[in-house]
């Protein structure tokens, strides 16, 4: 047991500690947003990337609103003598407590999703706890991947393809927003693009589906989605037309290949959200701050409810011509994008406060670590040694 006062320490958008009570509160707020209702039948899901961002929202919406039983896989760090556990560790503990209160079966596995040993462990759990699976949600965002079959480690990069670019970006100095006019974006080499595809493309998703098929763990009517992003032309050079975009294109091709092999597999294009992965991308902080100034962002929970509505057949699939589920129409409408572009082009240090909600963005980043959460007493001691949930 180790109780202490936890303060936000770190640099830029990276905090070294997370606040357990704040993270727990974030989970409860998400569950309240998902608002429960009676389930019509038992459904089962495996969520890869369940502790954070869209994977967490899908997990909470699934369990709290749709009464889904499941298994979540994520990669988090326990508390040490010096540091708290990661935010995803605390959020997972609270999600498990929520599942128990709601009488649902959820087990969380803290392990590298890319490893074959993790797949073996998780598939044993699927067989033992869930029987067969109705849904697989693939929502991993990782900087590197070791292929267990070759031992090779690949690193993903955030770089442009073709010509170098620069982007406007947002940073904070002593908590005050600072507009950077031209942050350079390097050009990725062919090898860097290939490595990014090995990390964030569809190879590992396919391995999960194949492993489940090999063990005969797919229920009739099974479907699977992997999350993808398109985003604005403003972030295009770094995101969709960049190295990460090449990986997303591979993921989307993977869905088509799996579908050709008879698996109901799709990608889900979600809208921009402030997550640990997205806030690290140059330009995205400014883009999302302007987006928020222009329109209300659909939250990850709202989008996840919509995703489950479609995956459970409650509403028809809303697919584009490339077979992708579109949850980002609110972001990419002409009206919103025209207004965002106008603000983006006009933004200077002097008018930043009028055109971009930078303070909101920073508060959202803090919330990712359990800080800046209303009704949490940040002066009080809080237990940082929280056990990994054993699961029901
Ligand atoms: N954030 C956005 O704006 C946005 C928009 C659309 C789509 N997406 C997509 O959603 C997906 C998830 O992104 P996010 O922004 O929610 O990220 P995130 O950083 O909030 O969450 C990533 C999750 O992956 C898990 N993870 C990372 N490495 C792992 C590993 N080796 N093994 C097991 N789990 C691992 C983490 O524990 C965490 O649960 C990505 O495919 C991303 O491209 C994000």
Automatic annotation (TrEMBL):
Pathway: Lipid metabolism. GO terms for molecular function: enoyl-[acyl-carrier-protein] reductase (NADH) activity; NAD binding; trans-2-enoyl-CoA reductase (NADH) activity. It comes from the Bacteria. Its EC number is 1.3.1.44. Keywords: Fatty acid biosynthesis, Fatty acid metabolism, Lipid biosynthesis, Lipid metabolism, NAD, Oxidoreductase. Gene3D superfamilies: NAD(P)-binding Rossmann-like Domain (3.40.50.720). It catalyses: a 2,3-saturated acyl-CoA + NAD(+) = a (2E)-enoyl-CoA + NADH + H(+). GO terms for biological process: fatty acid biosynthetic process. Residues 83-310 form the Trans-2-enoyl-CoA reductase catalytic domain. Pfam families: Eno-Rase_FAD_bd, Eno-Rase_NADH_b, Enoyl_reductase. Residues 5-80 form the Trans-2-enoyl-CoA reductase-like NAD(P)H binding domain. InterPro entries: Eno_Rdtase_FAD-bd_dom, Enoyl-CoA_Rdtase_cat_dom, FabV-like_NADH_b, NAD(P)-bd_dom_sf, Trans-2-enoyl-CoA_reductase. Residues 319-381 form the Enoyl reductase FAD binding domain. Monomer. This is trans-2-enoyl-CoA reductase (NAD(+)). It comes from Kribbella jejuensis.
């Amino acid at each position: 047991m180790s109780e202490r006062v936890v303060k936000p320490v770190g640099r830029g958008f990276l905090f070294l500690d997370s606040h357990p009570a704040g993270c727990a509160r974030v989970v409860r707020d998400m569950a309240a947003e998902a608002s429960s209702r009676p389930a019509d039948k038992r459904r089962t899901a495996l969520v890869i990337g369940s502790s954070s961002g869209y994977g967490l929202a899908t997990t909470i919406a699934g369990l709290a609103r749709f009464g889904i039983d499941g298994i979540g896989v994520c990669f988090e760090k326990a508390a040490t003598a010096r540091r708290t556990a990661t935010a995803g560790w605390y959020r997972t503990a609270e999600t498990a407590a929520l599942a128990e209160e709601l009488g649902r079966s959820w087990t969380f596995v803290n392990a590298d999703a890319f490893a074959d040993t993790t797949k073996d462990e998780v598939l044993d759990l699927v067989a033992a706890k869930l029987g067969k699976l109705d849904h697989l949600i693939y929502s991993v965002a990782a900087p590197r991947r070791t292929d267990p079959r070759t031992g090779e480690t690949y690193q993903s990069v955030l770089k442009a393809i073709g010509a170098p670019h620069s982007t406007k970006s947002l940073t904070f100095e002593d908590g005050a927003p600072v507009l950077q006019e031209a942050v350079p974006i390097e050009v990725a080499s062919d090898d860097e693009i290939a490595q990014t595809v090995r990390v964030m493309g569809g190879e590992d998703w396919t391995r999960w589906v194949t492993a489940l098929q090999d063990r005969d763990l797919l229920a009739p009517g099974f479907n699977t989605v992997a999350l993808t992003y398109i985003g604005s032309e403003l972030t295009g050079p770094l995101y969709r037309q960049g190295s990460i975009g090449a990986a997303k294109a591979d993921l989307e091709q993977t869905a088509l290949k799996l579908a050709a092999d008879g698996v109901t597999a799709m990608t889900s294009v979600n809208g921009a959200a402030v997550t640990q992965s997205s806030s690290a991308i140059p330009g995205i902080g400014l883009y999302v701050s302007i987006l928020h100034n222009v329109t209300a962002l659909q939250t990850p929970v709202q989008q996840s409810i919509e995703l489950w509505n479609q995956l459970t057949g409650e509403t028809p699939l809303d697919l584009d011509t490339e077979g992708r589920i579109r949850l980002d129409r609110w972001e990419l409408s002409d009206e919103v994008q025209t207004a965002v572009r106008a603000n983006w082009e006009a933004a200077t240090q002097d008018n930043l406060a009028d055109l971009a909600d930078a303070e909101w963005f920073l508060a959202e980043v803090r919330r990712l670590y359990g800080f800046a959460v209303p009704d949490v007493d940040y002066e009080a001691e809080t237990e940082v040694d929280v056990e990994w949930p054993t699961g029901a």
